[in-house]
């Protein structure tokens, strides 16, 4: 999956060859709020440190108050344990701050299929926080005739939109 | 780190953490009380961001202090005089317009503060600021949009928005208060000097209020005190509710 990452090189988590097996285990842990995405393709896992007698996984929160973080940490520890790593430790890391730019193209498509419109642009584009939204496609009928209802939605990372054609409301993964 | 600079850093981490905690708790009081469902969700999402921020800041404050106090110890077992949050953050929600006025005043200030803090020589402050500034941008946009909509709305919405602005104006000066200890941190490049923010803050807030056809208050009298632990009565009631469970059942877990 790593080859699909399109984030700036300096923000890429470094994967030491010795930790490949660990990353593969982590790819089986899903985000509890968005179960079609795993925590690696979400960009939540920032690094793995493996020594002879210790194993540490570094994770970063999407939003400061994301209530899923504790569950994610528990599930990572449980997955490691199931695979024979009894003493896995999960640590929080704040920098660099998580951004939707880290979502892989594959993750974008999975979101669409799941019914969540993926971020329409990268945060490098200045308009993102200035109220000038790009066109967001309805994940159900793919209409471009959509409007934002509220910048705050069912979870911290989503905004609420609706489609003017199929009339369905939908979640939009907002750029941050 | 000398004892003095450690104490200064501790106090500053408390200031940041308490601002986020107290404003976050106030906003959480809108849960199931919002004027419309979308705003109920919006205000409580903002509350969630802030409470999340306060957790990392108060944990850090506990680390700096080095006496083993956790984020929960600091949130639940301090008295009002030990809190360092700005007076504005503890003010009652009032009606929706008053809450929006508070959000506008605070999030413009927070944007300035976080921009400066991103360049902090303290890695935790810088990391916090880089994260929080992105969240605050959404809070600021939300407050500015509602100020425009209410101010330039009906007679009733305009009256309420103006009343909210007027009522909270006296608490805005306290945002820019600094202590001698802060100035040590400023010279060490750890925090920005918030006392220099005032003019730019006034300009940004005035621009929004003017566009919303509201009047910028002229009063020059501002309540101060939060940096010395002197708070308004409102904080005691807030803490009474926020801390009641932890104080009734110390160490409760679920």
Helix/strand order of chain B, N-terminal first: HHHHHHHHHHH
Our measurement of the CA-to-CA distance between the termini of chain A, rounded to an integer number of angstroms, reads: 22 Å
CATH superfamily of the largest domain in chain A: Fe-S cluster assembly (FSCA)
Which chains have the largest interface?
A-B, 25 and 31 residues
- Summing up helix and strand content along with how strands pair, one would put the structural category of chain B as mainly alpha
CATH topology of the largest domain in chain A, by name, is GMP Synthetase, Chain A, domain 3
CATH architecture of the largest domain in chain A: 2-Layer Sandwich
User: What's the name of the CATH homologous superfamily of chain B?
Assistant: Ferritin, core subunit, four-helix bundle
For the largest beta-sheet of chain A, the strand count, sense and barrel status come to: 4 strands, mixed
Mean pLDDT of chain B: 96
Question: Notable features of this structure?
Answer:
heterodimer, A: 176 residues, alpha/beta, 2 domains, 4-stranded mixed beta sheet, 3 helices, disordered N terminus, B: 254 residues, mainly alpha, Ferritin, 66% helix, 0% strand, globular
What features would you describe in this structure?
The complex is a heterodimer of chains A (176) and B (254). Chain A is built from three helices and seven strands, in the order αββαβαββββ. In chain A, 18% of the residues lie in helices and 19% in strands. Chain A is of the alpha/beta class. In chain A, helix 2 links the parallel strand 2 and strand 3. Chain A folds into two domains: 98 residues, GMP Synthetase, Chain A, domain 3 (2-Layer Sandwich), CATH 3.30.300.130; 59 residues, no CATH class. In chain A, 39% of the residues are buried. The longest helix of chain A is centred in the middle third of the chain and has 15 residues. In chain A, the strands form two sheets. Chain A has a four-stranded mixed beta sheet. A three-stranded mixed beta sheet of chain A has the order 1-2-3, covered by helices on one side. Chain B has 254 residues and is mostly helical. Chain B has one domain: Ferritin, core subunit, four-helix bundle (Ferritin), CATH 1.20.1260.10. Helices cover 66% and strands 0% of the residues of chain B. Chain B is built from eleven helices and no strands. In chain B, helix 2 packs antiparallel against helix 6 and helix 6 runs antiparallel to helix 7. The N and C termini of chain B lie far apart (38 Å). Chains A and B meet through loops of A and helix 2 and helix 6 of B.
